[in-house]
């Protein structure tokens, strides 16, 4: 097994080459090699969702994904959502609705919500709960998170379904 391989990654829209051992997870490469620390390691087993990033627009557990598996696939981290114009609407909704407490799960929750809204701009509450079901939050009880995501729905005019 080689000591290190060159990985051609596309992270937050930027093509990056990284020299890394082939056994490193995507989470390790993001945090240690690229210094993108938004994705967290909560359990290292894929159970908590704190390491969630988007690969090809779908939420994945970066602690379970080898970095070599991510080569050639667009990866979006929480750091890649905001633009020069401001925060992403999902980020804004989380702030406006108080869906952030300790913040540890927030990046994964926001990315899971973004993926949901990209594929279903009018999700029902059950859709929202399913989309964030793999993300554990120990602080909020999920009510404010569901409320924040619901507020983004294109069929919501008064804030209620």
Give an overview in words.
The protein has 161 residues and is an alpha+beta fold. The protein folds into 2 domains: 5-80, Beta-grasp domain (Ubiquitin-like (UB roll), Roll), CATH 3.10.20.30; 89-150, [2Fe-2S]-binding domain (DNA polymerase, domain 1). It has a 5-stranded mixed beta sheet, sandwiched between helices. It has helices spanning 26-33, 67-70, 89-96, 106-119, 125-131, 143-150, and strands at residues 5-11, 14-20, 52-55, 58-61, 74-76. Strand 1 and strand 2 (14-20) form a beta hairpin.
Write the layout of secondary structure elements.
Elements: E1 5-11, E2 14-20, H1 26-33, E3 52-55, E4 58-61, H2 67-70, E5 74-76, H3 89-96, H4 106-119, H5 125-131, H6 143-150
Parallel strand pairs: 1-5
Antiparallel strand pairs: 1-2, 3-4, 3-5
Helix pairs in contact: 3-6
Brief rundown of the structure:
This protein has 161 residues and is α+β, with helices and mostly antiparallel strands.
């Amino acid at each position: 097994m080689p000591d290190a391989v060159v990985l051609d990654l596309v992270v937050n829209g930027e093509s990056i080459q990284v020299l890394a051992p082939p056994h490193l997870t995507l989470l390790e490469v993001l945090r240690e090699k690229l210094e993108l620390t938004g994705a967290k390691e909560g359990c290292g087993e894929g159970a908590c969702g704190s390491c969630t990033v988007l690969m090809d627009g779908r939420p994945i557990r970066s602690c379970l994904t080898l970095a070599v598996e991510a080569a050639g696939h667009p990866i979006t981290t929480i750091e890649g959502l905001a633009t020069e114009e401001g925060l992403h609407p999902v980020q804004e909704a989380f702030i406006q609705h108080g869906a952030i407490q300790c913040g540890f799960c927030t990046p994964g929750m926001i990315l899971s919500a973004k993926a949901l809204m990209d594929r279903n701009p009018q999700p029902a509450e059950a859709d929202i709960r399913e989309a964030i079901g793999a993300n554990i939050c120990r602080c909020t009880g999920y009510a404010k998170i569901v409320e924040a995501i619901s507020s983004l729905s294109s069929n919501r005019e008064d804030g209620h379904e």
